[in-house]
Amino acid sequence: MKDFYPEPCEDWDHMSQILRDEKFGLHWLFRGESLPEKNSLNMSLRTSLHRVLIDCDLKLDHPLEVESEMIRDFRRKYDGVDQQKVENDTLFCLSLMRHYGAPTRLLDWTYSPFVAAYFALERWHPINRPVVVVWCLSDEWCFNSFVEAYPKSRKDLEEYRKVHEKKEPTPAIREKKNKLFEKLFMKDRLNYVYPVNPFHFHTRLNVQQGVFLCPGSISIPLVRILMKLNGWESKNSIRKIFWKIKDKDEWLNALNELHRSNISRVSLFPGPDGFAYSLNYRLRHYDRLAERRRRDRITAH
Questions:
Q1: Are 45 and 133 a contacting pair, CB within 8 Å?
Q2: What is the DSSP string of 169-215?
Q3: Looking at the DSSP assignment, which residues form a beta bridge with residue 125?
Q4: Residue 168: enclosing H or E segment and its boundaries?
Q5: Whole-model pTM above 0.85?
């Protein structure tokens, strides 16, 4: 099977140098993953909905109807302060469902290559997932490939982009955006992908510089949709920057470099849950700290 444009890295310095490439401007999105060395493409860029279907060995006969039932159930039972937004804005509802761990068609990306690198490193495993990958996706290519494949939908997509960029989203504008989103993405009939975000961000989406990649169909895997679009093999469309980590020292050193740049669980997941989880990667630091304190006590005596 063909693969996306590959860029192998020798070490963390090499990977971070590529991620600082000046060609990555405002029009690129990034996603970090850790993958097996073989058959990695089959496990790449899976939405949470697709992962659940594979894990549970399910094949949905009516995927769109199932998704609709999930959204309806979430709306009925969600009682947060932003309940009205959940009810009236399908994309906001999906983003909040994803935030709380529900399986959705949305795939998490970020505008920060180093946030993506952190997520790739965090999930690394020396045997099961020894290769860390930072995917780089051009949103200009997403637009161009969309309108090339479906020229009749160009007007709707351009209007969706225009409405999204409004600085003062009135209720009428929000309603219009919601109708366009549902028309473009919730019919399960067009094989394309496009980056989307709701008008209103929750805290985690904001601090992670998050953005979602949304497919126009959930009947086939997202990676197969990408490979149906013209130009998917080009370096100017999708880049696959990857590094096979040799040992745990390399892995921890890379995580420490990001930690010194304030990219860690603590900063990306504000609150006690993010801090508590971050302690998994600080054990070596605490071990060295304990050893230093022990030496200080011995010297004092």
A1: no
A2: --HHHHHHHHHHHHHHHSSS----EEEE--SS--HHHHHTTEEEEEE
A3: 129
A4: none
A5: yes
Phi, psi of 109 (to 5 degrees): -130, 180
**How far is it, in rounded angstroms, from Cα 105 to Cα 278?**
28
pLDDT tens sequence across 189-228: 789 999 999 988 888 889 999 999 999 999 889 999 999 9
**Is 279 inside a domain boundary?**
no
Q: For residues 26 and 164, give the distance between their C-alpha atoms in angstroms, rounded to a whole number.
A: 16
**Bridge pairing between strands 131-138 and 210-215:** unpaired
Whether 82 is covered by a domain: the verdict is yes
| Centroid of chain to Cα 132 | 14
Residue 163 CA to its chain's centroid (Å):
23
Question: Of 10, 223, 289, 250, nearest to 124 (Cα)?
Answer: 250
Joined together, the tokens standing for residue 283 give 């054990």
Cα pseudo-dihedral 262, 267, 268, 270, rounded to 10: 180
Whether 192 maps to a domain, the answer reads: yes
Closest CA relative to residue 253, chosen from 36, 85, 65, 16: 16
Total domains, the chain: 1
Q: What percent of the chain has pLDDT over 70?
A: 99
Given a contact cutoff of 8 angstroms between Cβ atoms, the answer to whether 130 and 244 are in contact is yes
Token pair for residue 264? 């860690």
CA-CA distance, 180 to 163, in Å (whole number)? 9
HSE-CB of 172 using CA atoms within 13 angstroms: 0
Residues 132-178: pLDDT tens digits?
A: 999 999 999 999 999 999 999 999 999 999 998 877 778 899 999 99
| Domain containing residue 62 | 5-247
Residue ranges of the alpha helices (H) in 100-153? Answer: 113-122, 139-149
- Whole-number Å distance between alpha carbons of 94 and 99: 9
- Residue 84 located in a structural domain: yes
- 264 and 30 in contact (C-beta within 8 Å)? no
